[in-house]
Amino acid sequence: MKPFLCAQASSRPHSKVEAFETVPLGDENRFPFLKTVTRLPLFLRLAKTMIRWRIRGGHRLVGIFEKLGLLNVVAQYQLGHGVSFSVPLFRADTCWDQRDIEGYEKQLISSFCRLLEPLPDVVLFDCGADIGTFSALVCSHTSRVARVIAFEPNPDVAGFMKRNLSQLQVPSEAISKAVSSFEGAGRLEVPNYDSSDHARFLVPGDGPLEVVTIDSFGVRGGNVAIKIDVEGGELEVLKGAAETISSARECVITVEANPRVAMRTKRDPVECLRFLQSLRLFNFVVAETAESPLMSSPLIKDGQKAICNVIGWTSEPAAPFVERLGKGA
Predict the structure, then answer these.
(1) Do residues 165 and 143 make contact, with C-beta atoms less than 8 angstroms apart?
(2) Which bin fits 164, alpha (ψ -120 to 50), beta or left (φ > 0)?
(3) Apex CA 4: angle with CA 175 and CA 72, to 5°?
(4) Rounded to 5 degrees, what are φ and ψ at 54?
(5) I need a surface site. Which of 7, 108, 164, 231 has the fewest CB within 10 A?
């Protein structure tokens, strides 16, 4: 996942509603009760405007506000299709305004939802859901999703994930467990290059986390969508979803390709694409570039630093969709 880290604030008009409520968010959170606001606090809007206009001091102001406890609130935004989305502002990874949310993985969300349009009653598996951002945005852009099953092993955000999934307009399950190719236990570790929540990865074995597979949920047949962002464990998640993918009527699957993760695991994300092709015929495209990756060469290029997302799908032939994607249709 590519966190915003409190960048990109909005100068667009906001709702005039200033009402707030105090809402319990569960024992999983550091703050059992937080004020919920329907408009970004004025001081934070000022800081974010400075950041967007590249005025020095914006990021420093955000840091000061955080130290003073002024960001210990939850901002609730209204998205499309009746979806409400709650954001904990005290987390650097999710110190977002409406514009941040609308720009989150914009190319991936747009392409993913276009591929879902021909498919009714889709079951969406969100692996590495964090606070549920991907699920909320997909459900706010398309009405094709009929059920959401989201996995997030980080206990610090479990309450927010549950809250956001409960605000969707479709049945949902918030699973506070890790997902992989086995059922058992494990722990989360932090890589030496990134201490943020988004970078933590699963280590199988002894640990406090319960680990499950997608196949264990018994979804067979019908249309399935899977998003996988688990910091290097994407291939294991796919192996644990082999029966679900093979038996599905149609599939849309996206996996993250992170150069630093590939270097740490010594495994290129193209292995995920090759595994999917071994199950059934897939088309693939890189969401950010509209390029069709080759199975014969690494997905991560020499010197590449940018994170990208690859989408695979089983229905429409590749050429027409990639052509439309390149035109931004």
Answers:
(1) no
(2) alpha
(3) 70
(4) 60, 40
(5) 7
**Pair 120, 166 in one domain:** yes
DSSP assignments along 263-289, one per residue = HHHT--THHHHHHHHHHS--EEEETTT
Which residues, other chains included, contact 265 with Cβ-Cβ below 8 Å and sequence gap of 6+?
Answer: 232
Please count the CA atoms within 13 angstroms of the CA of 179 that sit on its side-chain side. Answer: 29
Domain of 141: which CATH number? Answer: 3.40.50.150
Host domain of residue 139:
105-326
Residue 69, C-beta contacts closer than 8 angstroms, at least 6 positions apart = none
Helix, strand, or coil (residue 243) = helix
Domain boundary among 102, 118, 148: 102
The model carries a pTM of: 0.88
Q: Any alpha helices (H) in the chain, and if so which ranges?
A: 42-52, 58-67, 98-103, 106-116, 133-141, 158-166, 234-239, 242-247, 259-265, 270-279, 318-326
**Which residue, among 293, 312, 317, has the nearest Cα to 304 in the 3D structure?**
293
pLDDT tens figures, 13-40 = 333 333 334 444 443 445 557 899 998 9
Q: Which residue, 35, 70, 102, sits at the end of a domain?
A: 102
